[in-house]
Amino acid sequence: MSEEQKRMLLDLQIADFNVIEWELYMHTHPDDLIGCQKLKNIMKVARKIRRSYESLYGPLTRLTPVSCTKVNCTPWPWHV
C-alpha cells in the first residue's frame, strides 16, 4: 500500500469519526443550526474523500457499485 493510499484512508477515518461525533451532538442539540451546518460540511468532506479513494483504489465496502468489466486487483482495506 502506498503512502498516498494510507494517507487517504487515514483522512477518511478522521472525517467519518467527525461525522459520527457531530451526529451524536445533534441528537442532544437538535436546534443548533451551526452544528447542523458543520455536520453537513463534514459529511460532504467524507463523501468527497471516499469517492476519491474508491476511484483510485477500488471500493471500500460491498455496497459500492463496481463495474463488472473492471478487474480490481488492489487489496481490500482490511488486508492492509
Radius of gyration: 15 Å
In whole angstroms, the N-to-C terminal distance is 7 Å
Question: Mean pLDDT, nearest integer?
Answer: 85
SS content category: mainly alpha
What is the 3D shape?
elongated
- Binned, the helix content reads 55-70%
The main pleated sheet reads as: none
**Percentage beta strand:** under 5%
SSE order: HH
Number of separate helices: 2
Q: What's the number of structural domains?
A: 1
Number of strands: 0
| Low confidence ranges | none
Element layout with pairings:
Blueprint lengths: L2 H26 L4 H25 L23
Helix pairs in contact: 1-2
Give a written overview of the molecule.
The chain has helices at residues 3-28, 33-57. With 80 residues, the chain is an all-alpha fold. The protein has two helices and no strands. Helix 1 (3-28) packs antiparallel against helix 2. 64% of the residues lie in helices and 0% in strands. The protein has one domain. The longest helix has 26 residues, at 3-28.
In brief:
The chain is mainly α. The chain is built from two helices and no strands.
Structural descriptors:
single chain; 80 residues; mainly alpha; 64% helix
